[in-house]
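To whoever picks this up:

The nightly regression suite flagged Putative ABC transport system permease protein as changed. Nothing in the input moved, so I suspect the structure step. Input below, exactly as stored in the fixture:
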Amino acid sequence: MLRSLVAGILLAFAGSRANIARTILSCAGIVVGVGSLIAVVTAGDFGQRFATAYSEANAGRAATLSVATWDTEITDVAAFEEDLVRAGGLDVSLYTMVQDASVRSGDHVIPDVEIRAVDATLGDIRRMTMAQGRWFTEADAESLAPVLVVNQTLAADMEDVTRVQIGTDRWMDVRVVGVSQSSALDGGWYTAFLLRAPASEEMIYGESVETSADGAAAPVSLRDPEYSVRIDPGDPAADDPWGEVFSGRLLSASDRWGGVGQDSLMAYRADYAEEVNQMIGYLSVGLIGIAAITLTTGLLGVLNVGLVTVRERRRELATYRALGATRFTLFVAVVMESVVVSLVAGVLALLGCWILVAAGGAVAAAFIDLPPDVPLAIPPTAVLVGLGSAAGVGLLAGVIPALRALRSSVVAGLRE
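Regenerated output under the current build:
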């Protein structure tokens, strides 16, 4: 049986080489169909990776909540943050706006800079890609000067990143330890992250944090703070987009930090990659349906050409039978010839898609900076889907002509 299989495959390749025009004609519909499938899978894969990266950079990794109060003062920030952890927070970071602060580099005052007071743990909650330097570490909390990370857009407009000051009613020297990378994920605005530390507490809280004789910090208050909180994706609170479950847990101990009411506390699911990926999935299903219709048209074309070919090659096939070829060998030869034609079409479609994707990536790079780990490229799944569907179409399209070839009379075929 193995010998017959090998002989059938060799006959299939010989037949394909001998009928180049027919092979090219059969390829046309499959090239379009397979190319469409590869393009859809590639676009869906890129869209999902880009949506995930965008969500992680702007809102947080999976199951990140934004927790904020409004028109309310938290009387004990430390107690509030302890309860954020008790409510299910794995990583908690302050993410509140520093009001009325400006940035100056040398003698150049940069207007409209959004300064966010954060903790080093924000790097565990959100994707922080650095162009220069690094993100905050716990050691930066001991710095005698406030510590900043600025985005590339802001750094480009600074006269000297080693001579930076921020201030509200007075200027204060700060130390820039990193520049976050500008990319398609960056809105292009001036953004600076100020590490919450003893050196920056007065700017964040409006007052210095006092300590008692035993070194314990006195309770400090903050009006309308905002936090980023990452919870376990398996936590029931992660399935509540409006944060009612998490808010309920938090409010159960609100007497410890100000007696905040339900109307003054807001918690909601901040990351949105799952929703975007779901939308992309629905769109991909529709596009794959269109590609499948095109591929079916290609299948019918290969089937039609195969039937015509078998009719024209009756004498040739009868000669093979007369020379000792088994029925199984002829069956494999006809089917494999169809598979070979379809695989050639699949390879041509893959090559065409690769050229288009490479050109699209070059054009996109001229206008936007994609994140380094989100390249525009054909994923392995697209290659497998494309070539697998091409082989499947060839297999299906070759069965009927092969069966017809087996039913043909050897004697009648030799008389033609």
